[in-house]
Design a protein that fits this description.
The structure is a homodimer.
Chain A lengths: L16 H14 L3 E4 L11 H11 L13 H17 L12 E4 L1 H13 L5 E6 L5 H7 L3 E6 L11 H5 L6 E7 L11 H14 L2 E5 L23 H8 L2 E6 L12 E5 L1 H14 L5 H15 L4 H23 L13 E5 L7 H10 L5 E4 L1 E2 L13 E5 L4 H26 L4
Helix pairs in contact in A: 2-10, 3-10, 4-5, 4-9, 11-13
Chain lengths: ~425, ~425
């Protein structure tokens, strides 16, 4: 039987380039090098102090216990309140979320992998708008399911293609349409019209619609993100049917700078949630009660600090401005569309065929006074192997000064890389 | 496509009876009732204070970050040191475990579900010695794989059947043999001869062998548990081949009273671990760095407190004695084989055909001065639906006094149940 030592799904899994870069960067940092880690969406911003307070309070009891597999009631209540409050403050019409509509997971990753295991049989397909967060492929692969991409293009501001074009990708195997807004990596925020179109297609074709809304609060300009929870069809029977298709994914990682707590949420109808929760129960048994307690403390604190999110947005806007200015100053040849949300920047280097080698060169073989930069080659964000080959993604997760410095280092690295490549192609001694 | 709204694997998942009882008990406690929760292996013992210290230190930095998907190096190093030290102290020959042999997961549940997703294709089978921890069925179901059981019997001290009997269950679909020692629920500790026999069968049939060793340290009598890491064949080539089959599952939950941190481990050869780690990466992205920091603190502290485990064992031994005495005093009609390890007791009620209803009656409809007891009906620990129907499992997770009280309440509940059933069968007015 050991002809194949591993399940065939494992062949579909590979470490994401984000994570590969992270591993190399961590080693270099351990060796004493300074690495500006723009390769991973790991904010340097300190989490809200109420998180630590809540954690300390719970840890000090010495009682760290199993939790219900759907999540602790106090966190589900607090998060439901937070979500309703978020939309209410902006005075937008939305589906009211109740405690029963919330499942707690080990981050948004687990929210997605649980969801796919609950809704996809082997061979099933999920449509995703491209570019997309590359680990989606692996989350689907755990269920034996396959990602199919609907391409969008920077030249066209990543606009959603026509209904006809999207429907062309739907097959009898399609189970769900998925989109991520604000988008990682492109920064695109889907307009109300675009989100409604996706919702309508899902409704007409009886497909689940999955909104990865982990960057909902991260707005870099004037355009707010539209949640699936805001979709309101004119016919009441459509709205009722839509509730059987709607799955929202969320996380405490980005808006609360709590990537390392691994707390995420699935928001959906109770009958759907119960099935996803059973997968959760047989994946991790339950989520840490200690972390749920801490994260509830963080959400609770933000609820009473109405300017918390505005300050956070302001921080990222300043970083974006610093990045745009530094690019204009040091990398005049690149194309870098201004993102509307999330906290990434896609940078295209027209002079490159393939930028992958340069990224590793810069990290491993180059430094300016012991300092260098980790970035993510962007090809992984596309299913089409021809796309993204001369693009990188940087995350705006360090101070404006460090971002400016990083981009200057990048410009120096480009010069050094030209010399390095030139030397490589010279004949041997 | 929405004929089947959910993946077919979901049909194989059901809330474990342990968890069902937990949910009811929690509600009753919230209503003010006192419930002795003997239904779940959730120790009441406070975790080691160094855990809280480490957690507080890390949380106070405000930096809660992504972790490598194989786990943080400091925790993997500390745990490897702990494991080697554990065997060394008892002067038993064992495979030395290195940092590279350790994967950190979200508890032993996740260690198992990740492992099954990495090694089992849909339709594959895993042999498990019965009785077994019932969620195994669901962990396997996530991978589309099926559990097959090799029955053992209390009358025979749960002795491992003959090689011939075990081999009878092996088919071309079998991928692994799995056992849990000390065993939940039976308390059985497999002898060196038994573990070696299982290892030899795995070797001869080229099957993975998975040892669920989460209760390794929980010894209630004189017999120590034998780890798969202690198996040493006479031929060196067998030992080498065995390394390609060996998978040990462990957890911080039981020995360190840290069920709610959800930190588990897979111990295996690096080439196997890398594949399981890829599943981990696409399930939860990574394990919380905060919790890994805390758990490393706990393991580190135990390493410098050589009597920690002996004290813990003494605590559970006193509880077992209290339980055995109370059973003799209040439930003379039951059969309760003395467990050798773990911290459970299986109690057979010969007067019952099916004890399920009684368990729910006791919890929901009965109390003595506002106090009652939650226990787990044992049928779920068997695959054969005829087995375990008149058995319950209790966990020795409260003080000796509370255990005695609980068993007295059980005896009272039995009397009340007889009256309740008698009334039910009387003709209506």
């Amino acid at each position: 039987m050991m002809k194949d030592r591993f399940a065939s799904r494992v062949d579909m899994l590979s470490p994401s380039p984000i994570r590969k870069m992270m591993a190399i960067a961590k080693e270099l940092v351990a060796e004493g090098k300074t690495v500006y880690e723009l390769n991973i969406g790991q904010p340097d911003i300190e989490c809200i102090p109420e998180f630590a307070k809540a954690i300390n309070k719970k840890a000090s009891t010495g009682q760290i216990n199993y939790s219900p597999y759907i999540g602790e009631k106090y966190l589900r209540e607090t998060y439901a309140r937070y979500l309703n409050h978020y939309f209410d403050r902006r005075s937008v019409s939305h589906l009211v979320v109740d405690t029963e509509n919330i499942l707690v997971t080990v981050g948004a990753s687990h929210a997605l992998s649980n969801t796919f295991l609950a809704i996809c049989n082997p061979g099933d397909e999920v449509l995703v708008i491209e570019p997309f967060f590359s680990p989606y492929i692996g989350y689907l692969a755990l269920a034996g399911a396959v990602l199919k991409s609907v391409p969008t293009y920077a030249e066209n501001h990543f606009a959603l293609p026509s209904d006809e074009e999207i429907k062309r990708h739907i097959t009898p195997k399609t189970r769900a349409i998925m989109f991520n807004s604000p988008n990682n990596p492109s920064g695109k925020i889907y307009s109300h019209e675009e989100v409604e179109r996706l919702a309508r297609i899902a409704l007409d074709h009886d497909l689940y619609i999955i909104g990865d809304e982990v960057y909902r609060e991260m707005i870099l300009g004037d355009q707010e993100a539209v949640s699936l929870l805001q979709i309101n069809f004119s016919r009441e029977e459509d709205n009722e049917k839509f509730k059987d298709l709607l799955i929202v994914i969320d996380s405490a990682s980005k808006s609360f700078s709590l990537c390392g707590v691994r707390i995420g949420f699935v928001v959906s109808k109770q009958s759907i949630l119960e099935k996803i929760a059973l997968v959760n129960a047989h994946s991790v048994a339950c989520v840490s009660d200690l972390l749920q307690f801490g994260v509830a403390g963080a959400y609770d604190a933000v609820l009473s600090q109405p300017d918390y999110l505005e300050k956070l947005r302001q921080t990222y806007r300043e970083r974006l401005e610093a990045a745009m200015k530094a690019i204009a100053d040091f990398l005049p040849e690149v194309v870098a569309p201004r993102p509307s949300g999330a906290f990434y920047l896609m940078i295209k280097f027209p002079q490159f065929e393939d930028i992958n080698e340069f990224c590793y060169f810069m990290l491993e073989k180059f430094n300016v006074g012991g300092e260098t930069v980790a970035v993510t080659p962007a090809h992984a964000f596309y299913l089409d192997p021809r796309r993204g080959r001369n693009e990188i993604r940087i995350a705006l997760v360090v101070t404006p000064e460090k971002i400016r410095k990083s981009i200057r280092i990048m410009a120096e690295a480009l010069k050094a890389y030209r010399v390095f490549k030139g030397n490589q192609t010279r004949p041997c001694l």
